[in-house]
Amino acid sequence: MNEYVVTLKDKRNLVRISQNSKITINGKDHHYELIALNNSTYRLRIDEKFYDIASAKIDNYRFSVVMEGWTFETVVMTTLQERASKVIEQTGAVLKLSEIKAPMPGMIFKLKKKIGDKIELGESVIILEAMKMENDIKAPSSGVIKNVYVSEGSAVEKGAKLFSIE
Amino acid sequence: MLRKILIANRGEIAVRIIRACKELGIKSAAIYSEADRTSLHTSMADESYLIGAAPSSESYLNKNKIIALAKEIKADAIHPGYGYFSENADFIETVEKEGIVFIGPSSDSVKKMGNKTAARQLMKKNNVPIVPGTTEPVKSVEKGIKTAKEVGYPILLKAAAGGGGKGMRKISSDKEFADAFEATKREAMKAFANDSIYIEKYIENPRHIEVQVIADKHGNYAHLFERECSIQRRHQKIIEEAPSSFVDPETRNKITQAGVNAAKACNYFNAGTIEFLMDKNKSFYFLEMNTRLQVEHPVTELISGIDLVKEQISIASGNRLSFKQKDLFINGHALESRIYAEDAENNFLPSTGKLNEYEIPSGPGIRVDSGFSRGSDISIYYDPLIAKLVCWSSTRKEAISRMIRALKEFRISGVTNNIPFLLEVFVNQNFINGNFDINFIEKEELVKKFQSEKTDEDNTLEEIASAFSAILKHQPALHKHAGKKFENSNKWTDLEYE
Fold first, then answer.
1. pTM for the full model?
2. Which fold has domain B132-201?
């Protein structure tokens, strides 16, 4: 159980961790050493190069990794876990209803559509105000507005359900 | 000299002003909202006062509360920073009436320049070239469409009380006009509490060149050369530099003289900036005057050796300029990057959260003006600016290499930021060669490139990040053993922890 599939920006990286500080990244062997500096910062050596990394565990599978100016989000699964999750994905029911969530926290400035309205792909449905900017929340597909979960003037958190399209 | 200054602002600019106060031996008093308890300015000032709830309208824009506080704590001056009340003539008038020194220009100068249509009239009269368009606010959609036709599309709709790229829209045809008119008015109302808007011809592919001016209350005027702020995304400046790589000595003479003339036209004192658009033939047009300190003032400080904030305070106290025009010269080159809490890979959506990790770059020629420290919260209520990274070197080329080096040293976690995108600009050949204008980011398709193209270095970093994540997953105990070295030689570490 020391083979991992790490997904980063849709790219799968295969990482195998072996005895004696050996690590294989996408088929290439390296020597590694990891030093924890405190609860969130680390120093990782891969062969002759050290990297200073800040990291946070988002949940059991996801990590945020900050290095050299970049912020990466990684999803780590053992090869077994990945196989299992694929099976679930394939057998799971395909949802016809799509729910649109707030991409950032903010205030609902304007509802341009109501339940039952027909909408086209890309049409503006809600104006979400955040950090003094008006952001258009557009329909990701064509269809009919099935539900609207928010009202004008209300504050929403990131990820809050806004509306659904059928 | 002043004894205590109330800083009516927040974030990095409040910190900048507090630092100047400390160096001058003046007491600094900060105000903070409920969302800014963990911000840097709150703890750095000598005194800090809770001014209200998180929304700016209830805190940093609460005029009566701020002025009452200044009187109560016996502050003899107010520094407005930029934004908020910095260009609000009504606020300045009240401060003046209360016998408190406003660290900035007179309310009269601000009125003359604050309304962009009135300023355009004044400049036209004083032979400072302006962008073609209206010198009166547009009253209705019908009248606007008529003017737009006369000036010729594309045009820009702009907030008369605006600035900083907010409340502005480009329109290319009649049918876009009505929607854009309403939206611009709404944004203008919200951002500047004034919904009058005007029309300007959209100048194709100009460069944004601005002149820093400064004047005392005794009629002495000086300029501190130009800055170039052409690297913008959606009209928002992201990279600034001084001097401009496009301006030759002859053009510099002309444009800085126009800048000083503009300042004289409104009897200006304190620090101010005259923004121009410059076309490919180096003809320039007055855009607006910012009657305040600019976000990008540090690049001017680094090439001129003048501390603009200290100079502002000295001028407000009634002193003459501390230097003469003939003593100034351009020393080297300076660049500034605005580090924003936004997700460049996700349509630049603002990002909020806690700065879990926050380490700023250092070393030769580096200056960081930041409003936060480790553990600070970045909230939805304010501008997403985390910090300004400023680099100086003797040449532009060296300053660019230094910027790249410093951006990579920055470590921010908890909040997504635009550093990877900024790096994309600094390695771009056209940027390096000085071959750009204000549409650079769109023209180079930099956003698309950034999101799709990968260099070998990017790939290596992604693999390292992946390896790192796998090791953490493999050895979760690492979280609890800070400071210890882990070599994967123990058979126990081969167990799965879940």
1. 0.81
2. Dna Ligase; domain 1 (3.30.1490)
